[in-house]
Design brief:
The chain has about 300 residues and is an alpha/beta fold. It folds into two domains: about 220 residues, P-loop containing nucleotide triphosphate hydrolases (Rossmann fold, 3-Layer(aba) Sandwich); about 70 residues, 2-Layer Sandwich (Alpha-Beta Plaits). The protein is about 35% helix and about 30% strand. It contains eleven helices and 15 strands. It has a six-stranded mixed beta sheet with strand order 7-8-9-4-10-11, with helices on both faces. Strands 1, 2, 3, 5 and 6 form a five-stranded antiparallel beta sheet that branches. α3 crosses α4, α5 packs parallel to α6 and α8 crosses α11.
């Protein structure tokens, strides 16, 4: 397996404060890698190290095969960064902003013009290319930030909470754009506080808390990790009086809640219970209208691992 980002005991200290505590990450080439954590978890410090803005206190890392410390200039040549807040020149147009970035990378005028046109069409801003970017809406600014971040055709794109503060339409547009960039071959390192967004978008997810990695895996793997239990909601045509005590006798039933025609069941196991319950109701001549299995959400995982206490 090729890892485009790999860290070994990566650590950052600020005096006696350990902001990042010997983390080991392996990001696969071509994936959308979610990087989650509460405020103060160490996410921003980690990203600042991986993007060469901050030197580690100890440990090592490689980005696209380049040593983070010894080959920092090469690392910068293969990455792009989409910051949470608009950091381009608000007094310049979209075209002028991208042209300026192209010149910083030493691109030829013809290449800048071609790349600028392509990117502005990609982020659906070409019709607004001559507008002052400071007058853009929040969603337009963020799409321009994405275009600016990939002006140099990076292999890896770091996206730091790119949908924060955007309206639903703009959030959807940024997520769709992220998927398209990933399909084009760019590895995405994605941070967000939106659990639903991470669940839908990311191939694998890491959760960080208090400077350490507390979990890593696919969304399904993380959900399975926190609980072997399952919640099932059953709607019956009618509920016979005898059915509740009979349900409670089943070895895999923890509790039964009954409201009108609906049953809320907490089960001690996850595998094979759907078929067992269906058979149980058939045997007891109960007509089932609907059975729904309620899986734990990524938010359940996040809160379960990082607890509910507020962070500054």
């Amino acid at each position: 397996m090729a890892y485009i980002i790999e860290t070994k005991n990566l650590t950052k200290k600020f005096g006696t404060l350990v902001a990042v505590n010997g983390i080991n990450l392996q990001v696969k080439e071509g994936e959308i890698f979610g990087f989650l954590g509460p405020n103060g978890a160490g996410k921003t410090t980690t990203i600042n190290m991986l993007t060469t803005l901050m030197k580690p206190t100890s440990g090592a890392a490689s980005v696209a095969g380049y040593d983070l410390i010894k080959e920092s200039s090469q690392v910068r040549s293969v990455i792009g960064v989409v910051p949470q807040t608009f950091s381009l020149f608000p007094e310049l147009t979209a075209e002028e902003n991208l042209a300026y970035i192209g010149k910083l990378y030493g691109m030829k005028e013809s290449a800048i013009k071609e790349r600028t046109e392509f990117l502005l069409k990609t982020v659906v801003l070409y019709e607004h290319r001559n507008r002052i970017s400071g007058d853009y809406s929040g969603g337009m600014k963020q799409r321009l930030s994405v275009a600016a971040s990939i002006m140099s055709s990076p292999r890896i794109l770091f996206m730091d909470e790119p949908t924060t503060g955007l309206d639903p339409q703009s959030r959807i547009a940024i997520r769709d754009l992220t998927r398209e960039l990933n399909k084009s071959g760019i590895t995405i390192f994605y941070t967000t506080h939106d659990m639903e967004e991470a669940d839908k978008l990311c191939d694998r997810i890491t959760i960080m808390d208090k400077g350490s990695i507390v979990a890593i895996g696919t969304s399904t793997e993380l959900k399975n990790m926190i609980s072997t239990k399952q919640t099932v909601e059953v709607e019956l045509q009618t509920v016979s009086k005898h059915i509740i005590p009979e349900l409670k006798k089943l070895p895999y039933i923890i509790s039964v809640q009954h409201h009108n025609k609906n049953l809320h069941l907490n089960l001690s196991q996850r595998n094979g219970t759907f078929a067992k319950l269906n058979k149980f109701f058939i045997n007891h001549k109960q007509e089932v209208i609907d059975i729904k299995v309620k899986e734990p959400s990524l938010e359940d995982v996040f809160v379960g691992l990082t607890k509910k206490d507020l962070r500054d």
